Write the structure tokens for this entry.
Amino acid sequence: MRVRLQRDSGTLMIMTTAPSRDLAEWLADEFALGEPIRCEPVTRGAVGALYRLDIADEPIRSYAVKQFLSYSPTEEAVGMEVAFRDACARAGVPSPAPLRSRTGAVLVGDQGIGTRYRLYEWVDGPAGRDGDADSMIILAGWMGVMHGLQVPVPPQMSIPAWYLRVEADWPELARRVRAGRLPDAERLSALLPQIIERTTLANHSATRDAIWCHRDLQPANMINNPAGPVLVDWDNSGPLVPLQELGGLLLSVGDDIDLARELVAAHRAGGATARITGPDCFATGLASILNFLSEQLEVQLDPTAPEHHDFAAATVARIVRTLPTVAQLADLAQALADADS
């Protein structure tokens, strides 16, 4: 595997090409899996890339390989995430089990390069589609189960700023986007007042009563296996206010109030008790999306990262097309509050 290390604004980015047989053999040896046949790319996200590793057997055994691109989790964070996933699995949230290496580690590093990897059981099936109502209802039910567990946050940990504050200078970023002639430059400029209004709401995220949450519940992270849906991508789990995680899922309903009510009902049926009382319940979800928007615009503006431009452009286009306005969120919150009264 060829790797190019690049340092930009103090952040080390690891840019990779397709995995080589050397990587497949190294991973197969680290996890004592047997003889590898192939290791092929499946998809990628902002944080990592996913590969399928096939091992010679009758029948062929397959494993999911997660390669961390933009950051590497700590051993402590991974340990807590695995414990959380295990607790959720026992409570009825289906998910692929992480594999452990020969030494018992779930996070391994490619020696001499610095890239980190995790392996999981492979799950066959298509991912859920954005906006798919059935997928979102299942996710809301799983979220309710996880929130009902009330997994505590260690005293030394807190909610990351990513979920609480948006520090982007939107007028300056819009100016740079126009100067760079990015695809969504004009639309971004036209939406600037609304983006600033959303940022004001996002910067009022609640921090009290945080518990351990999945923090990435979206249809793309639900695999529709023939035996039943399975939740993947637990790497981002950590402290969050459960009401705010519910609000983040509700950001995807658009104007479909009936679907929003079904999501809240599924969440409660899973064992949670959160109630939407106002637009501030969507603050954390907004903060996460707006920070992601800012980050991906910066990626598009970076001339040294062309391999990430297509992903960033698609992400920006989707966000500016689908993000609800503050007025829409106020209407949604009122409709849900009225349903509870």
User: Anything to note?
Assistant: Residues 283-301 form the longest helix (19 residues). The chain has eleven helices and eleven strands. Residues 1-18 have pLDDT under 50 and may be disordered. The first strand starts at residue 3 and ends at 8.
